[in-house]
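dude i think i finally got it to work??
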Amino acid sequence: MLQYSSIGNVVKKYYNVTYVDVNWTAIMSCVSEIIFFYPIAKFIDYYGIRNSMLLATFFLTFGGCLKLMAVNRDLFWLLLVGQIFPRTIWFKTEEAALVMGIANGFFMLGADTDFVLPIIFKNSTAVQTKAKFFYIAIIITVSCAILFLLTLLYVVDKPPSHPSQAANNRESNGHHSLRVLLKNKNFILLTICFSLIVGSAQSFAVTLNQAVLKTFSNDQNALSIAGILAISCGIPGSLISSLIAKKYSNYRYMDSIEMVALFIHCRNWLFNECVFCVDA
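look at this
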């Protein structure tokens, strides 16, 4: 998701667009997740996890192919379309939080690689930039194609062991409508809190290129270091939070702690931005 916003200055210059347009490369991925989340969940219920993963990895590969075709400087719109495509619980109940924490940690590890790109694109000409965009798209497409083949060969709908209590509960309550869920005040509050946490974290990462290069002009090394440090800190945090959730299962206190940490983070971020603006 951050592969283009992490090098926003390069994309802006190469495609002759604005930073707002560059931000849309990240927004399109998030929009697709919001729009297709519920339909995908229903698709999994009806057709199983294997068919769902096959469909998802197919569209990932298709999105990578679109990015391959979008390396020309007049095809930024096609790049945005390609960004749309890139994005059942069968574990024991007590392991579910740990699994999600590990998955989130790997997601952040992948996001770390996006901030290696500023160094790779440093002082690149238009021809070199086009070639590097092409190689990145090739890596994405081939990786997604491999995932598709691995899913086709090895993924099964159900494990040999009995499903977790969480899976059983989901199957028995699958007839509940979305309207009932949206009337649940606890669910609404949790969704708002989660949206604030994820939204602030993503907005920080998406606009980091603009913020750092505005202060440290053309310093790609500083941008890469800032991005890697900012995202890497979330890896141990994800694992620690999941371990705490696994042991204590007191989500109300954990959510409160995360909101306080979010407030402190946003306060420090805005304070530093204001200081830099005054100095400028």
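Residues 5-279 form one domain.
im so relieved honestly
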